[in-house]
UniProtKB/TrEMBL annotation:
Protein name: dTDP-4-dehydrorhamnose 3,5-epimerase
Entry EC no(s): 5.1.3.13
EC category: isomerase
GO MF term list: dTDP-4-dehydrorhamnose 3,5-epimerase activity
Origin species: Runella rosea
């Protein structure tokens, strides 16, 4: 596994190393020892899997408020997505900056998303499947979100949005008073 820190401190693009032969390939997607090198010691307590039918669909930008802030790791196992994270850590030098990367079944890249980030993606093909690892249990009442079209973020989605959930269309725009997530409370 190769870990490359993104410009947003503590978030990583992880490239997997595949062993190929005539049968196909084999790759490791998690190793406690390797992840300890980037300071990861928490347990994954939930694994989730989503399927999105339509190319151009957007899901996001989601996070959980403290004390349920979580580390997330995402991998696309069918199709491809533009995956986007936004730094909403209070006091962070990269506060409200975002990073995006294509994750696909072909490139097998994973994104490691620390606490205090919002996450979302747009599908670049039909029939996209994503696998998520989470260090916190899903807490409906702690869900938070930014809008995918938030002007303070200026995320450039590559495709015209084709499908967005009612919930995601109803998130509020940020106000200038938004100071971010205080991770001391996590
Ligand atoms: C996220 C989640 C949802 N649910 C339920 C709530 C709801 O009835 C149904 C669908 O939920 P949502 O509409 O929030 O699904 P979705 O919009 O796909 O939410 C996901 O979006 C991406 C961007 C993420 O980063 C994920 O962590 C997650 O928030 O599944 C769970 O039971 N457990 C979970 O962990």
């Amino acid at each position: 596994m190769i870990f490359e820190e993104t410009p947003l401190k503590n978030s990583y693009v992880i490239s997997l190393q595949s062993f190929s032969d005539n049968r196909g390939w084999f790759t490791r997607t998690f190793c406690k020892k390797d992840f300890e090198k980037i300071g990861h010691s928490e347990e994954w307590v939930q694994l989730n899997h989503s399927f999105t039918v339509t190319k151009g669909a957007i899901r996001g930008m989601h996070f959980q408020y403290p004390p349920h802030s979580e580390i997330k790791m995402v991998r696309c196992i069918s199709g491809g997505v533009l995956d986007v994270i936004v730094d909403i850590r209070k006091g962070s030098p990269t506060f409200l900056q975002h990073f995006s990367i294509e994750l696909s079944a072909i490139n097998k890249k994973m994104l490691y998303i620390p606490k205090g980030f919002a996450h979302g993606f747009q599908t670049l093909s039909d029939n996209c499947e994503l696998i998520y690892h989470h260090t916190m249990y899903y807490e409906k009442n702690s869900e938070g979100a930014l809008r995918y079209d938030e002007p303070l973020l200026s995320i450039k989605w590559p495709l015209e949005p084709t499908d967005i959930s009612e919930r995601d269309l109803n998130h509020q725009y940020l106000t200038r008073s938004f100071e971010g997530i205080d991770l001391i409370l996590s």
